[in-house]
Design goal:
Length: 133
């Protein structure tokens, strides 16, 4: 079950990332903080964090699996990093929903950098686990 929840988290992350990206490409401008696409982006981002936590909890029972033992900490650390950063990312994103945020450019930059690190860490987590099969 942990494997499927992990893939659901990955899909939710990709969908959440595509929403503001597609909006910006199609309309050639950023969506406002209170717009429907950004609210949808926030809800899917929160669901991704929830899926990541459920993935961690449900994967604990599979820690004795031979492929996980082969992968070892090399697979677990990037996954934990991605989960930790996903929570921080949601926190920064929730601050960006405020239309009165003074340092919006700074928080938007932090949001984008953390999202990139999450993608790299999640990719490393999946790649190591798939290589250990």
């Amino acid at each position: 079950m942990g494997r499927w929840i992990g893939w659901l988290a990955c899909v939710a992350i990709v969908v959440a990332a595509l929403i503001p990206t597609v909006h910006r490409v199609v309309l050639s401008r950023r969506a406002s903080p209170l717009s429907l696409p950004i609210r949808f982006h926030a809800v899917i981002g929160i669901l991704a964090a929830l899926f990541a936590f459920v993935h961690v909890g449900s994967s604990v029972v599979a820690l004795g699996d031979p492929s996980l033992v082969r992968a070892g900490n090399i697979a677990i650390f990037p996954g934990l990093l991605a989960t930790f950063l996903l929570v921080a990312h949601v926190g920064v994103g929730l601050r960006l929903l405020s239309p009165r945020l003074q340092a919006r450019v700074k928080f938007r930059r932090i949001h984008a950098v953390v999202a990139t690190i999450i993608l790299v860490a999640a990719f490393a987590h999946v790649a190591v686990l798939l290589a250990a099969r």
